[in-house]
Amino acid sequence: MKWEGGKQSENLQDRRRMGPAGGIAAGGGVMVIIVLILLCMGADPRQLQQLLQNAPQAPARPGGAQVERPETAEEAHSREFAATILAFTEEVWGEQFQQAGQRYEPPQMVLFSDRVLTGCGAAPSAVGPFYCPADKTVYLDPTFFDELERKLGGSKAEFSQAYVISHEIGHHVQNLLGYSALVHRKQRALSKSEGNEWSVRLELQADYLAGVWAHHGQRKYRFIETGDIETAITSANAIGDDRLQKRSSGFVSPESFTHGTSQQRVRWFSLGLKTGDLSRLAEIFEIPYGEL
């Protein structure tokens, strides 16, 4: 992926070098797998909260002192990459919203390590990248990409990372357009399994939005190189509910899906990439669930 030298967003904060001296000390790789398994098995969020509260803690220094250290070369690279991809999304979505007669409000992005405090509560690295609608911020521990490759069979290639980031930005776009609120209203009136179906639709729509972003970003910046699309598809395929469940437990439980199958995720990302058509967003909510 060609991104070096591109404009970097000013809406990124890097909190990795400064934070509480104490914090969650459990191995990140182990926690990532545990939380992913529980999510894919339809675990109650309260169970996850209990798990996080009981995670081993590193000893805190007296007075709750803050620690700061020099930035490593790897951290500088990941910060510059994330800030550039964020800027790409700001430009593309700014233009798309303008064409639709609306104004795009860019999200914030926070890079963190181990644990972070958000408008949606405290979260460890184990939850993976996520968007918090309460503070309109995307949170990312870049070491997730190592786990994606080593533990889950995804790709660590840069365009694959851009796909993950643009998926989370897609949740911000959904929040601005009202789709997130629509799904949450439906979920409050439905059973757990029926609510999960709407979670799947929301996640597939975010995959479609990631594809739409890549479509228009490529036209504007020509950042996609040979083999890049395949790496994104590899990662989309690796994090499908069916594949994660099969990997963790040996069987698949469709009624507990919350993100969609590997095939679904690849399909909708690919369709967004091919068409770049923002007007088709509602289509994902209109197709019968079994045909997604």
Describe this structure in words.
The two termini are 30 Å apart. The strands form four sheets. The protein has a four-stranded mixed sheet with strand order 1-6-10-9, covered by helices on one side. Strands 2-5 form a two-stranded antiparallel sheet. It has a two-stranded antiparallel sheet with strand order 3-4. It is of the alpha/beta class and 292 residues long. The longest helix is centred in the last third of the chain and has 30 residues, at 192-221. The chain is 53% helix and 11% strand. The protein has one domain (12-291). It has eleven helices and ten strands. The protein has helices spanning 28-40, 45-53, 73-99, 144-150, 158-177, 179-188, 192-221, 228-238, 241-249, 262-275, 283-286, and strands at 12-14, 18-20, 23-24, 57-58, 66-68, 108-111, 115-118, 121-124, 130-132, 137-140.
Number of distinct helices: 11
Total number of distinct structural domains: 1
**Count of individual beta strands:** 10
**Sheet with the most strands?**
4 strands, mixed
Low-confidence stretches: 20-65
- Order of SSEs, N→C? EEEHHEEHEEEEEHHHHHHHH
Give the overall form.
globular
How does the helix and strand content classify structurally?
alpha/beta
Q: What portion of residues belong to β-strands? A: 5-15%
Estimated radius of gyration: 19 Å
Strand order of the main beta sheet, please? 1-6-10-9
The chain-level mean pLDDT equals 83
Helix content: 40-55%
Distance between the termini: 30 Å
Q: In brief, what are we looking at here?
A:
With 292 residues, the protein is an alpha/beta fold.
